[in-house]
Amino acid sequence: MTLPVFPVCCQRTPDCAGTLRRLARRRFVHNCLLAAGKHGGCWQDECLPGEHDASTVFHSGMVVVVNRRLRTLFFGAIPVMVSAALVGADTLPVFGDSLRVPYAAEGPGPVFNTLGDYDGEKIIDISGLPVDPTDGALDMTTVSVAHNMTLPQAFTRMLTTDDTFVPLDVIIPPGQTAEEVQETNEREFSSSESAATMAAFRHLGLPLTTVVEKTVPGSGASGVINPGDEIVAVAGQQVTSPTAVTELVRAQQPGQLLTVTVKRHDTGAVEDVQFTLGKDTNHGDTPLAGMMLVAEPADGARVNYNLSGVGGPSAGLIFSLAVVDKLEPGSLTGGHKIAGTGTMSPDGTVGPIGGIAHKVQAASDAGAELFLSPAENCAEAVSRYDGPMTVVRVSSLEDAIGAIDAFKRGDTLDTCSR
User: Fold this and answer.
1) pLDDT value at position 43?
2) Domain identity same for 226 and 147
3) What is the pTM of this model?
4) Same structural domain, 98 and 156
5) DSSP-based three-state secondary structure for 12
6) Is 80 exceeded by the pLDDT of residue 401?
7) Does residue 33 share a domain with residue 162?
């Protein structure tokens, strides 16, 4: 029976068979051929509405969750012969149709070494600047999410894994499709890449430019400023970041004529343009320019991220560390295998994420020695983990680099505790 799921297949992940074999040691997971062919699957680092952000791997019809206490209850409440019959069937005679449970299951997902390759390409590819050799690993962690389960499949998951159940509408909110959720996750992931680059370049003291990603149709900037144009100055003041542009625009008044100096992306010409500011009535009549901006490396440098089928903001911290390691002389990792998670702001602030207990387990299963946790997630990070991997709290990119350096020296670390 073929079950619908997100479109990116397991076969596009590095060492798919090996990854699934590793997961299978703790989780009930089909073999690589089945996951990639019959059922499908997609690795997903997702950010979902509310507090439920998770680096995630989706598998169709494959999920489960249950702690040992619930497992005991299930075994006590369900006769063994009936349970075995249900596990072997996708329908119940009384109903005559496939039953789908309104829950999804979360568990540890695969990890990706951001210093390495994915699908034949460097996960982080830097051009226009000298790149320093790296060693060790900086692992981006994920959560495995399964949904669209039949009732027998859900029972099997409950009895054979330590995953956790969440209501399906937490993963796919009412009124949205799985594809729409995936698109949102991918946009979040793209934003996390830009923020990671900005934070790393600021740490390294490298120059950045502010570039127009797109303009809002019908806004003052639309048709005057083009995607790809660099913003040089606003109202006569030089700018070096999207934040600076936003602050200068907000210092104006709606309806005011604004002068912006741009460097055209197609000709390189620098010129002044003018347009009338609109009004953002959703934010207290704030002046609105109608530009979406991103920070990009200056002087022809480029940082490209090549990890398809992934979404959400929680890889930001690890991405920033990988960029720093590639551009700063010497080895950041010291040859150690380091993992972590957390959002990254352009100023280097690390933010909380969801699903961290599963990410910690995924990192440990992959052999990580040190795990970097956002400070706000610290207690949750070790709530289900008592293994040998060291789990430390970090609040910024500087904290993370300092923790890695201290770990290499064998110094005392600010570890997470329950």
Assistant:
1) 39
2) no
3) 0.71
4) yes
5) helix
6) yes
7) yes
- The string over 228-243, giving b where at least 16 C-beta atoms fall within 10 Å of a residue's C-beta and e elsewhere, is ebbbbbbeeeebbbbb
Quote the pLDDT of residue 335.
Answer: 98
Three-state DSSP at 208 gives strand
Q: Write the CATH number for 272.
A: 2.30.42.10
Residue 98 confidence (pLDDT): 60
Q: Which sign does the torsion angle of CA 48, 184, 339, 166 carry? A: positive
Last residue of a domain, one of 129, 152, 185: 185
Q: Is the Cβ–Cβ distance between 277 and 255 less than 8 Å?
A: yes
State the average pLDDT for the chain. 79
Q: Do 361 and 108 form a contact (C-beta atoms < 8 A)?
A: yes
In this prediction, residue 121 has a pLDDT band, given cuts at 50, 70 and 90, of: very high
Beta strands in 76-178 (DSSP E): 103-108, 112-113, 117-118, 121-122, 124-127, 137-140, 143-147, 164-167
Per the structure, the complete domain to which residue 48 belongs is given by 10-109+141-185
Whether 320 maps to a domain, the answer reads: no
Q: What value does the CA radius of gyration of the chain take, rounded to a whole number of Å?
A: 24
* 104, 179: one domain: yes
Specify the amino acid at residue 145. V
Q: Please identify which residue in the block is written with the tokens 């706000």.
A: 376
